[in-house]
Specification:
This is HNF-p1 domain-containing protein. InterPro entries: HMBOX1, HNF-1_N, HNF_P1. It comes from Paralvinella palmiformis. With about 80 residues, this protein is mainly alpha-helical. The chain contains three helices and two strands, in the order ββααα. It has a two-stranded antiparallel sheet. The longest helix has 18 residues. It is extended, with a radius of gyration of 16 Å. It starts with 11 loop residues before the first strand and ends with a helix.
């Protein structure tokens, strides 16, 4: 997938060594900071997600919009 095809919510880049973030990413960071979560807790959460990805595969890292409807329907049916 080319950078032009990537959803805006997951794109970020660097210009002159400074990180550039999408509006969605900045809003997410603002909401996290306002929730009272610490930087250390965010790092712990990322490390836990990395561990889950290694153990279970990237199933829980895919944004909902990138998961096919059929997969979601199958997961919902299996849970019932």
């Amino acid at each position: 997938m080319s950078k032009a095809q990537m959803p805006t919510a997951i794109m970020s880049s660097q210009v002159n060594g400074l990180a550039l973030f999408t509006v969605e990413q900045i809003e997410l960071v603002r909401r996290l900071r306002n929730s009272g979560i610490t930087k250390e807790q965010i790092i712990q959460a990322f490390e836990a997600m990395d561990r889950l990805d290694r153990e279970l595969g990237p199933v829980y890292s895919l944004p909902v919009t990138l998961v096919s409807f059929g997969s979601c329907q199958m997961l919902t049916s299996a849970a019932n």
